[in-house]
Amino acid sequence: MKAVILAAGVGSRLGRPLPKSLSVLPTGETIIGRQIHALWEAGVREVYVVVGFKKTLVMEQNPDVFYHYNPLFYLTNTAKSLLGAVRHLDDDVLWLNGDVVFDRSIIKLVLASQGNRICVDKKRCGDEEVKYTLDERGAINAISKIVTKPQGEAVGINLVRREDLPALVRALETCNDQDYFEMGLEIMINAGVTILPLDVSTYRCIEVDFEEDWDHARRMFAQGSAESRVLLG
Q1: Which DSSP string corresponds to 122-182?
Q2: Per-domain boundaries in the chain
Q3: What is the fold of 2-220?
Q4: Which of 31, 58, 60, 87 is the most exposed place for a label (fewest CB within 10 A)?
Q5: Average of pLDDT values for 149-160?
Q6: In which band, very low, low, confident or very high, does the pLDDT at 226 lie, cut at 50, 70 and 90?
Q7: Smallest Cα–Cα separation from 91: which of 156, 166, 35, 202?
């Protein structure tokens, strides 16, 4: 098992001078530091972080992982960042966006699952959230920010098994520079690869895009270490 954290972006919507992944939670952890430790605790030892914007700051604070530098981070999106990290791997690959704050037990849940997985939260979604729908088998059949009658949010934690990794690489290679990696997942699905949802709705999990997301995340993770969702108004 290999893990990839996508942390190359500028995070312009949050408007911080530092990489978004270095934002400090009430627990004293950075977002990316919490992610790395969650992976280690679950037994994933090879963690690759894709860096770009102010990469040295991320690398200095987290020296015990591997790094892949995306020199075109200001021109490309997560599809190309993920491609650079996985194109030479030959194993199961779990990857996550570098701005997702979540209960650590989610990683263990993913690793215990079968098949290819996309972690989902069954909730009402806004325009900026990545949404999904399921087919009659219960498999993912659409995943993007523009989905008709979405069934919830794809939270940014995903797993592709070794046998389907070449299909992921081929799909990401066909993506445009500005595509999110979800476009690659849709290409895989349309080519016949089955990807199943993994419901994490009962856990705390939030992707930080805007200031209100960050405020919500800080309140959510100020509630202690209970591995269950904290419902906030």
Answers
A1: -S---TTS-EEEE-TTS-EEEEESS-SS---EEEEEEEE-GGGHHHHHHHHHHS-TT--HH
A2: 2-220
A3: Spore Coat Polysaccharide Biosynthesis Protein SpsA; Chain A (3.90.550)
A4: 60
A5: 95
A6: very low
A7: 166
